[in-house]
Amino acid sequence: MEFIFGANNQGKIIGKNSNLSDLDNGDLKHDIDFRSVYTSFLKNKFDFDSSQIGIRNKALEGLF
Asked: pLDDT tens digit string along 12-29?
């Protein structure tokens, strides 16, 4: 789960609740890769292409 604090962010919940009966070797399965959140932040707040620093994940729409 990612938390983003500050002004001018969209109040939005993304993803879904984890299924506690469907685990990956005892761990929760993730729904959203944190790099997608970073990509969205860099793209929307700084107009920066995250692929320049090796992050290839697609940005999440409507997060910022």
From this structure: 777 788 899 999 999 998
**For the CA atoms of the chain, what is the radius of gyration?**
14
Measure the CA angle with vertex 42, ends 39 and 44; round to 5°. 100
Rounded Cα–Cα distance for residues 43 and 48 (Å) = 5
DSSP 5-64: -STT------S----TTS-BTTBPPPSS-HHHHHHHHHHHHH---GGGGT--PPPPTT--
Q: How far is the CA of 62 from the CAs of 14, 23, 39, in angstroms? A: 10, 29, 13
Whole-prediction pTM value?
0.65
